[in-house]
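Support request, please re-run this one:
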Amino acid sequence: MTVPLDRHYLVEFKVSAERVSQLRRIIAAHLRHWSLELHIRPVCRGVEELLTNVHRHVGDDNNCVVELRWSGRHLTVSVADNGSEMPRLLSAGGGGLSRVMALSDSWGTCRTPEGKVVWFTRYAEEPDSVGLAPLPPLPGVREFRSPPAVVAAPVAEPVTASDPALV
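Re-run finished. Output below.
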């Protein structure tokens, strides 16, 4: 399977509690489409944490952008909002960013002219290149197999009457 370089999905919306679960389902569908089923649970959990933080700290009806970018090797998820307060990783209490940190390989924040972006990455190489076994065939479907190679016995050279050894 060859992955097109840089798959990308972006959605802009107004933040609300109802939107968090909707976005979770949309992101899960995109990850399935990209054959990244193993990453659905941790990525959706990380996005849910980030969106809940936006809802809690920035408030309802603020603009928010969720972006997924998969290079074929790394999946980057970012959540941009128009809040000015930068998030902090609290050492106690197991806040949302602590969970995001636990679910990802790297994460970070940065200010933007409109507010801020919080992002995280996960190593997500395409399934065929990480040595996963092929899926078993579907029940009732005959699997095409090549015929086994037949090893033939060596063939003797034909003997002709003009051969001096026979005369």
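Residues 40-57 form the longest helix (18 residues). Residues 130-138, 140-153 have pLDDT under 50 and may be disordered.
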